[in-house]
Design goal:
The complex is a heterodimer. Chain A is largely without helices or strands. Chain B has a seven-stranded mixed β-sheet. Classes of the chains: A little secondary structure, B mainly beta.
Chain lengths: ~25, ~220
């Protein structure tokens, strides 16, 4: 049976995981 | 200095990784669109270490009956495991030819030995999930290099990109990409030791500057 996954947003990930790097 | 600061274990270092679409503009020039790209870096001891991610937060994104991320990490070595978050650059090119999609990847052996490696790409969701390639080391400038040069993308990936491109909104693409992962596993063909394992996750880029990424060390605290 399919197991419902926890959305990525609700996981303990670094803040940078959601921040697209700016070109330097 | 690259250990802990770039994608490198004590045995193997990734120098470059890219997936691109190439189309002839005229008989002598090509338009090249990089979907994802990790360029060469030369970290020094003064650079900070990569941020870490607890591997248990992403185990379920890389499942496998045998050889999934959890099993591979438990086997070790733990310094060979990385997570890459890619912001994929959407293409304005209109691909017609299947043979215009390529993947390139360069590694070198940190040990002075000529190993032969297996590089497998475990795509999720896809059945069967594995694409496997065997690479032989070449001695160049005092190092054993592995150069995966203009390797054609598998048909599943090409179809996936085509379908993704046809979604009208970015949030729809990201919703599909949230359930799409690739696990790249480089193993020594003879000893079966894991030399490097990179877990890739994706989001669509909102930048005008091309494909971006963050690299993390995978740890279990």
């Amino acid at each position: 049976s399919a197991v419902e996954q926890v959305p990525m947003r609700k996981r303990q990930l670094p803040a940078s995981f959601w921040e697209e790097p700016k070109l330097t | 200095p690259w250990q802990g600061r770039s994608i490198a274990s004590s045995k193997l270092r990734m120098l470059e990784f890219s997936a691109f679409l190439e189309q002839p503009q005229d008989p002598e020039t090509f338009n090249k669109h990089l979907f994802v790209h990790i360029g060469q870096s030369n970290p020094s001891y003064s650079d900070p270490y990569l941020e870490s991610v607890d591997i248990r937060q992403i185990y379920d994104k890389f499942p496998e009956k045998k050889g999934g991320l959890k099993e591979l990490f438990d086997k070790g070595p733990h310094n060979a495991f990385f997570l890459v978050k890619f912001w994929v650059k959407n293409s304005t090119l209109n691909p017609l030819l299947f043979n215009s999609f390529h993947l390139e990847s360069h590694f070198y052996s940190c040990k002075a030995q000529s190993d032969t490696v297996h590089v497998s790409y475990i795509l999720r969701p896809h059945n069967p999930p594995q694409v496997m390639k065997t690479e032989y080391a070449r001695f160049e400038n005092g190092r054993y290099m592995f150069r995966i040069h203009r390797s054609p993308l598998c048909e599943y990936m090409i179809n996936f990109i085509h379908k993704l491109k046809h979604l009208p909104e970015k949030y729809m693409m990201n919703s599909v990409l949230e359930n799409f992962t690739i696990l790249q596993v480089v193993t020594n063909r003879d000893t079966l030791e894991t030399l490097l394992c990179v877990a890739y996750v994706f989001e669509v880029s909102t930048s005008e500057h091309g494909a971006q990424h963050h690299i993390y060390r995978l740890v279990k605290d």
